[in-house]
């Protein structure tokens, strides 16, 4: 059903002027000029086809039509204001849903998440692990953490973590029958491949070594699987520093050699711009960057 409604700004101007019986005080309340209020009132009167105020020297009074209009206008504006506040509260309440790549969620986010829960014990967090780009218009997601170039149209994007890339292995491989003492020793070991990482061919060129079959070995489509294989002693992985910082610190993996490559991509937080004003999103975003600052 089509509704015949007057312009909202004109109605707000009328409400303020009717309460103050002054265009000047109404303008102060609405943070506009007195001329703007006068123009809005005149536009509303023309839309209604009725005068709402009697303009006298240094005085302003409501007409009979204006007096009868006031209660309904105030009730309507109060209802709209209350509905808006409820919507904003509901938008800020409820669980916080984070979308992150499986590897980042398991290797970096989840191990740190308890610190956020301790700080905000009343906030429920849901982590969705997926490599797909979030459709914020259709999916119930508050914030996405993505790995890439940072170019996602219509989203506010902030770089969270950069990285470098280097080989890692289980500590036991340093002392086995073919110890890893220099990059050339890779030819005696299984290479672990990650579809989301720089290839072994690129790393070997940077290291200046030849004679390593960079196509052989195990291949995975998720970085967390690649790193788990390395921690199980199944071979050598090219790792993104962000994902292995905790494992290296705990001794589950060791960093090999002195050759590392800067990553061309990075981890970003992304969401529609107005999402970042939500208290729960702002709290999580600020915590993420605090944690990122602690990452080696």
UniProtKB/TrEMBL annotation:
PROSITE patterns: HTH_LYSR (PS50931)
Residues in HTH lysR-type domain copies: 6-63
Domain of life: Bacteria
GO BP terms in the entry: DNA-templated transcription
The keyword DNA-binding is annotated on this UniProt entry: yes
Entry keywords, A to Z: DNA-binding, Transcription, Transcription regulation
Keyword DNA-binding: yes
InterPro entries: LysR-type_TF_proteobact-type, LysR_HTH_N, LysR_subst-bd, WH-like_DNA-bd_sf, WH_DNA-bd_sf
Molecular function in Gene Ontology: DNA-binding transcription factor activity; sequence-specific DNA binding
Family statement drawn from the similarity comment of this UniProt entry: Belongs to the LysR transcriptional regulatory family.
Protein name as it appears in the record: Transcriptional regulator GcvA
Gene name per UniProt: gcvA
């Amino acid at each position: 059903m089509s509704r015949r409604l007057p312009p909202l700004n004109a109605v707000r101007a009328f409400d303020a002027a009717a309460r103050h019986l002054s265009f000047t005080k109404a303008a102060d309340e609405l943070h506009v000029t007195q001329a703007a209020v006068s123009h809005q009132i005149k536009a509303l009167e023309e839309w209604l086809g009725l005068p709402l105020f009697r303009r006298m020297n240094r005085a302003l009074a409501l007409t009979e039509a204006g007096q009868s209009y006031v209660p309904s206008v105030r009730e309507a504006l109060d209802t709209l204001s209350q509905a808006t506040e409820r919507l904003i509260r509901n938008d800020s309440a409820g669980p916080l849903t984070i979308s992150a790549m499986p590897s980042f969620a398991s290797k970096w986010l989840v191990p740190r998440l308890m610190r956020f829960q301790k700080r905000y014990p009343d906030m429920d967090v849901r982590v969705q692990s997926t490599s797909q780009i979030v459709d914020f218009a259709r999916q119930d997601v508050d914030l996405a953490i993505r790995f890439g170039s940072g170019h996602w149209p219509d989203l506010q994007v902030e770089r969270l973590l950069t990285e470098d890339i280097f080989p890692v292995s289980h500590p036991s491989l340093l002392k086995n029958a073919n110890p890893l003492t220099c990059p050339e020793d890779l030819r005696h070991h299984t290479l672990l491949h990650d579809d989301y990482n720089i290839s072994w061919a690129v790393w070997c060129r940077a290291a200046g070594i030849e004679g390593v079959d960079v196509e052989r070995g195990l291949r995975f489509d998720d970085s967390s699987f690649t790193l788990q294989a390395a921690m199980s002693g199944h071979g050598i992985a090219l790792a993104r520093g962000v994902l292995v910082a905790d494992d290296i610190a705990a001794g589950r993996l060791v960093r090999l050699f002195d050759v590392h490559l800067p990553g061309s991509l990075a981890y970003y937080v992304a969401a529609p711009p107005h999402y970042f004003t939500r208290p729960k999103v702002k709290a999580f975003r600020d915590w993420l960057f605090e944690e990122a600052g602690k990452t080696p």
